[in-house]
Amino acid sequence: MKPSLLILHGAIGASRQLKAVATSLSEKYDVHLFDFPGHGGKKLPEGPFSIKLFAAAALEYIQANDLRELTIFGYSMGGYVAMYLAKHHPELINRIITLGTKFHWDEATAAREIKMLDTAVITEKVPDFAAVLAELHAPNDWKEVVQRTADMLTGMGKDNPLKPDDYRDIKTSSLIMLGDRDKMVTFEETIATYKALPDAKMAVLPGTPHPVEKVTPSLLAFFLS
Description:
- By secondary structure, the protein is of the alpha/beta class.
- Helix content is 42%, strand content 15%.
- It has a single domain, classed as Rossmann fold.
- A six-stranded parallel β-sheet has the order 2-1-3-4-5-6, with helices on both faces.
- The longest helix has 17 residues, at 142-158.
- The radius of gyration is 16 Å and the shape is globular.
- The chain starts with a strand and ends with a helix.
């Protein structure tokens, strides 16, 4: 029986963005692509977006599908959710792999990120991206997905769900990855998290920026295999 691999997408993203990676790993793993509530066409939750909400939804999926020998790969926000799960439910997870995850949040960081989530600016300045978001999240309104994400980041800036000391308690084997051309996540916060985790390795992906569409699937699959 193959070990399980749960793939978690990033903020304002959807699982289908990681299908190429999932396909490349299907021989080694029983691969599961998962969409967070309100993403990828899933029904919007009644309450606000939060890391706790997304982690609870992923936990429910893990338990409902009886995922064993579980590795979780989380891209960007998905990696944060994976770490949150490892903090609160370590018995369910064998290994965590993250890519391009922003671990450090404060009010200034959140404010910078939220500037990129202005739906009016996205519509006017990058209409192609707006069209992609509309397609990814239909039948939900992509603008609501983006606004709820901005609200979540504001909350994380005021109260980071994972504090620096929390990582010292996460004993799950971890691989922390960052693209060498990532302009959203700093080497400093990535290295700090890597050093805080008791059982971690770190990898830098060459020629790799933050957007998941620009990550080479075969390179990513190499580190996940």
